[in-house]
Amino acid sequence: MSSTFNRRKFLQTSAVAGAAMLWSPKLHASQLPDALSAEIGKSKWDLDSPALLLDLDKLEFNLKAVSAPLAGTRVGVRPHVKTHKCPAIAKMQIDAGAVGVCAAKLSESEVMLENGISNVLMTGVNVTKPKIIKAMEIRKKYPGFIQAVDNPQNAQDLQDAAKAAGIIADVVVDIDVIKRSGVPAGEPALALAQLVDKLPNLRFRGILAYDGGVQHVKGFKARKTRAFKTFEPVVESYELIKSSGLNLEIFSGGGTGTYDMMHEIPGFTDGQVGSYVFMDCQYLEIGGAKNEDRFDDFEASLTVLTTIINANYPNRLVTDSGAKSFTLNKPTGWVVGEPDFLYNAGSDEYGTISFENANKTYRVGDKLEVIVPHCDPVVNLYDFMYGIRNEKVESILPILARGKSQ
Ligand SMILES: Cc1ncc(COP(=O)(O)O)c(C=O)c1O
Description:
Elements lengths: L2 H11 L18 H6 L13 E5 H10 L10 E2 L9 H9 L5 E3 L2 H9 L5 E6 L3 H13 L3 E5 L2 H14 L3 E6 L12 H12 L3 E8 L10 H24 L6 E4 L16 E2 L9 H4 L17 E12 L2 E4 L3 H4 L7 E2 L6 E3 L6 E4 L12 E5 L3 H5 L4 E6 L2 E7 L8
């Protein structure tokens, strides 16, 4: 097989049509395409490790499943790219019907916009001067960029920068739910929305509110009760702003844990689901509407491939994947097919597995797949994911916004 063919096949089979554009100058490691084209078609078990694997059948299942309970409602999905940081996956989400995407940071938003994702709502605020100036430059270039604001001084700063850039910038007001970001609900939220509406270089587009505390509450009923309770002040703010006559075309919020509940919230327009694309141990444990024990509405599509490097002791295996491959999040990863294995990723470069029962005898060099504890920070540790179908590498998905934390 000639290298030309490899490269052509690689580009054809990369995650999305027109994937060549994703190998932009923004790519982290410029050698990546050539070095990786030879991996296409390999068995996943022949890949070196640690490596991030993405099961494409499971991913595609998740992309559809998230919209199923919303069919026939007015509510859409606006997936949060903080989870995958990968424009190729954002493109798949748009193709699956998303109304746009959310991004957490300005640099993350920029990577998406530069790589063909035209509708990006940044859920974090920009408060430093360089960021505010940059945000306006981005908005000037990309009309689909919307940014959040949660205090009057910041609204004024955005106004001044938008004026200096000669643009009218699109803004949503973030309403506080978990005392992390956002303006307090009620009158302060209304006053901020009215201020944004009045400022000549800002365009008020609506509100967002993220209830991070409720997403991992165990049990569907308990989660729903708490989600609706904590959202009451946000709904009141929505009613206040709406009855004041402002344009409220966006009312965005929620996450994977509440994806099938928020359409019952008055005025809500779209869910900011993130983790559903990959799933992780934290989410699998919370239970869903159909299964109280396991949240199996979505498939665990993301795993870390790891190699056993030491099997010298009974009931103990050591792997090449520690905290630098998994982060230190809890619970520690779950080994696929070995429910009795306890994976400890506490050492930087080593994972330690302890067990009483194993399905086979493992030797040095054997490989294992491990479901990750918390998907978002794990993805941020890798340059790319291997897209796997039928156990073989079908595509390479560069994580172009990896490390884009500003
Ligand atoms: C503002 C905001 N919206 C949405 C999400 C997505 O949440 P999840 O991954 O639980 O779907 C997050 C995750 O942290 C977030 O911070």
